[in-house]
Amino acid sequence: MTVLKKQKSFYNQYSRSEIGGNQLSAKAGSDLLFKTTDNSNGNSTAVHNILRIIAACAWLAVIVFLFVNRDKFTVDSVVRYTPSNRFLAAAVIIILFALKSLSIVIYCGILYAASGILFDIPTAIIINIIGTAVMVSIPYFIGRKSGRELTEKIVRKYPKAAFIADFRVGNDFLVTLFVRLIGILPCDIVSLYFGARGTNYPKYLTACIIGMLLPAVTMPIIGTNISNIRSPQFIISVLLNALTMIVSSVIYLIYRNKKEKIKERNSNEKRTDQHSCDA
What is the C-alpha radius of gyration for the chain, rounded to an integer number of angstroms? Predict the structure, then answer.
């Protein structure tokens, strides 16, 4: 129980640090739902508009609910309120993955770990993979419908997204896989971005599942061994996740330093050209 409390504190801190991204996700969703059909040649009806408003209100209600109850989304609470029936439990976990895709105040690691507590490891991994597919697909299609202008909003709000833009050339699968592996941005923000950029969906989905496979496998093991933190399974799983975080941070720091040097060199060349013109 002490470990669960520590874990709750960590997840709560993680959630608070990313609440700002939830605003962008909610904005994209509500904008999409409120989007009018200007090219429908007047076929849009009052009933259709009312349904759009109801859908948008329901969307915003979910966002508000998740925000208000963000401190309650812990491994302990998910396990406690999940039905004992295995099929219902699996359905609830997948629904929570869908809710997580609408709001980053839920840390997906909580759901991965809860699966390990509720099910045997092979079943938990399968459920996590299905949940991952759902989690990365919903914001992807929201971004796809929102259009390319959303990418500019994302880059303005998240400067790290420029990292994706720089690599957004060539193979969609490799680019998506690389971004998912290093994990420098919240999951749903990345999904919104790739959707808005029109990335090929089958390649995107396959790369996402492979790129997020490590936590989908290790977090259930951590959840299963949460009461025995000295077990080899727990230690190895934690170390693998920590190593991934360190490597991703190093990669991003190298990228940022390289960008700063390029920017400085371009600035120097510009000043040199300007002095030459003045002379």
Answer: 21
Type of residue found at 227 = S
Spatial separation of the C-alpha atoms in residues 232 and 197, rounded to whole Å: 42
Rounded-to-integer distance, Cα 171 and Cα 251, Å = 20
Residues contacting residue 5 through CB under 8 Å, at least 6 positions apart: none
Task: Give the C-alpha separation, 133 to 209, whole Å.
Answer: 7
Asked whether the beta carbons of 127 and 90 are under 8 A apart, the reply is: yes
Q: What is the pTM of this model?
A: 0.69
Residues counted in the chain: 279
C-beta of residue 144 within 8 angstroms of C-beta of residue 196? yes
Report in angstroms the alpha-carbon separations of 253 from 14, 187, 257, 259. 21, 20, 6, 10
b/e map of 252-279 (b: 16 or more CB within 10 Å)?
beebeeeeeeeeeeeeeeeeeeeeeeee
Is the pLDDT at 243 greater than 70, yes or no? yes
Q: What residue type is 249 in one-letter code?
A: S
What is the C-alpha separation between 257 and 261, in angstroms, rounded? 6
Q: How far apart are CA 57 and CA 51, in angstroms?
A: 10
**Reduced to 3 states, what is the DSSP secondary structure of residue 42?**
coil
Q: Are 60 and 102 in contact (CB under 8 A)?
A: no
Q: Most confidently modeled of 24-33, 41-50, 217-226?
A: 217-226
Distance between CA atoms of residues 174 and 36, nearest Å: 35
Nearest to 209 by CA among 96, 124, 129: 129
